[in-house]
């Protein structure tokens, strides 16, 4: 039996893309645990495997990609555990999972919304699929959520199409669509990319309130360490398809151990220090081949790191 605190577990996840040039190992042996009511931030540079890991949870990896190995298990509040990786693509359980038990805020609103349907139709469709309400009630729920994410004149905007919204407004619609069914697990893939700082702050407050009200567990994908410090309880740092360091937000930000984590934090410009050349990440960790055997270490403070044995420092031995 799993620990009752665990909401989602990812074990030895491998995701590959079969290209003409060969196989791309996008995710290579990822192990993650999301605990109930907590926010897990997954951080790393572009191409590190953050979004591919998130897409795997909802089984959204499409050809030429595939989940080559591993197991993803969801532990819902009021039903038996769900082995997501074993579900048939047309199963009723997967249908209930997407948008119901687990929802996702996509990074790019232009591709997340249908251009030929009003936003009202798109949000209400999700509500009608996962909640026992009628059409009128679904519209009332949709309007309330649009107001929550900061869209003015929500009643009128409900009848409009995505092209009638600015980029930031479209992103708010995507956020509203993901939150409207009050999912148990919310995956936010860099959700504030198109938002100004004021709306970003409002969204982060909305996430905080949602977590407090419904005990929603959140996976927050970002490269913004400021957002990590503000929202996360736990942090997983990814590099080249691997999780290289895991720990609490305080452990990772205050006392990073892995060379890549230290390099990631060192690459952030400081307003309080004199301008100097920022280090590059390759200069910190080097060019590591995907087949290089890395060693998994559990440190006395509970955090985990994965590292090339040749790079072990006296601090880690």
Automatic annotation (TrEMBL):
Q: Which domain of life is it from?
A: Bacteria
Q: Which Pfam families match?
A: ABC_tran (PF00005), oligo_HPY (PF08352)
Question: Entry's CDD domains?
Answer: ABC_NikE_OppD_transporters
Q: Report the GO molecular function annotations.
A: ATP binding; ATP hydrolysis activity
Gene Ontology CC: one annotated term: plasma membrane
Q: In which compartments does the protein localize? A: Cell inner membrane
Q: Name one GO biological process term.
A: peptide transport
Q: Which Gene3D superfamilies match?
A: P-loop containing nucleotide triphosphate hydrolases
UniProt keywords (A-Z) are:
ATP-binding, Cell membrane, Membrane, Nucleotide-binding, Transport
Q: Which SMART domains match?
A: AAA
Domain ABC transporter stretches: 8-265
Q: How does it sit in the membrane?
A: Peripheral membrane protein
Family of the protein in this entry? Belongs to the ABC transporter superfamily.
Q: Could you identify this protein by its name?
A: Oligopeptide transport ATP-binding protein OppD
Q: What's the source species for this entry?
A: Candidatus Moanibacter tarae
Q: Lineage of the native species? A: Bacteria, Pseudomonadati, Verrucomicrobiota, Opitutia, Puniceicoccales
């Amino acid at each position: 039996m799993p620990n009752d605190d665990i909401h989602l577990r990812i074990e030895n996840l491998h995701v590959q893309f079969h290209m003409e040039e060969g196989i791309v190992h996008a995710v290579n042996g990822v192990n993650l645990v999301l605990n109930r009511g907590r926010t897990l931030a997954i951080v790393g540079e572009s191409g590190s495997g953050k979004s591919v890991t998130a897409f795997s949870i909802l089984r959204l990896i499409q050809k030429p990609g595939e989940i080559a190995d591993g197991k993803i298990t969801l532990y819902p509040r009021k039903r038996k555990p769900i082995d997501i990786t074993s579900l048939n693509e047309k199963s009723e359980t997967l249908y209930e999972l997407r948008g119901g038990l687990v929802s996702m805020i996509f990074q790019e609103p232009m591709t997340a919304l249908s251009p030929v349907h009003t936003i009202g139709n798109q949000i209400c469709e999700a509500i009608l699929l996962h909640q026992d309400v009628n059409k009128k009630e679904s519209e009332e729920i949709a309007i309330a959520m649009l107001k929550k994410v900061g869209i003015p004149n929500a009643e009128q905007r409900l009848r409009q199409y995505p092209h009638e919204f600015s980029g930031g407004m479209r992103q708010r619609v995507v956020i509203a669509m993901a939150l409207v069914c009050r999912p148990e697990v919310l995956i936010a893939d860099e959700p504030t990319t198109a938002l100004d700082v004021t709306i970003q702050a409002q969204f982060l407050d909305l996430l905080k309130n949602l977590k407090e009200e419904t005990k929603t567990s959140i996976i927050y994908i970002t490269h913004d360490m400021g957002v990590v410090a503000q929202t996360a309880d736990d942090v997983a740092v990814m590099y080249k398809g691997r999780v290289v360091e895991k720990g609490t937000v305080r452990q990772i930000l205050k006392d990073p151990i892995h060379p890549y984590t230290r390099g990631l934090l060192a690459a952030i410009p400081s307003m309080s220090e004199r301008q100097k050349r920022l280090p590059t990440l390759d200069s910190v960790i080097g060019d590591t081949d995907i087949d290089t055997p890395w060693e998994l270490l559990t440190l006395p403070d509970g955090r985990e790191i994965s590292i090339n044995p040749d790079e072990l420092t006296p601090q880690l031995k």
